[in-house]
Amino acid sequence: MFLASLVLVVSTALFFFYFQAVCQRILRRKFDQEYFQAIVNANRLEFPVIRKTLEEYEAPVDYPRVCMTLKCDYLALTYLLKNAANVNQRYSREELLLILYFKAVFFSLVARHWLRLRENPAILKLTAVLQFFANVIGQRVNLVRFGNLSASDYLLNL
Hints:
By secondary structure, the chain is mainly alpha-helical. The protein has 7 helices and no strands. The protein has one domain.
């Protein structure tokens, strides 16, 4: 019985380790330009402000505001991932993995808050996922030009 429990615990730990490694590898993908800024401006997303505040000023976290902002930005970006300049109107495998990763890290953020542990690393991971989503959307919109419309103009007309 003890050996079975040990195998289960080790297997679960290895699964989460490899899951995180795969997601980090996806997030390291380089884009030929920073597409996310146009998407952020067009949709009034706030995750870059949160990231900048944490990286530059190391200010204390206003937990309820940060959670609400990240959740709203996540919902907006996942909607756009599925519907903006996406012929299949489905998520890719990478996007599905990152959606699961976002939910897992968001859950860990809640647990960190309850346990009074450092929340900043989890918040920075969440903003990295959101930035990746915005870059993917911006790249798609940039590839599908509609006349003289820019990415911002196209998204405003959705």
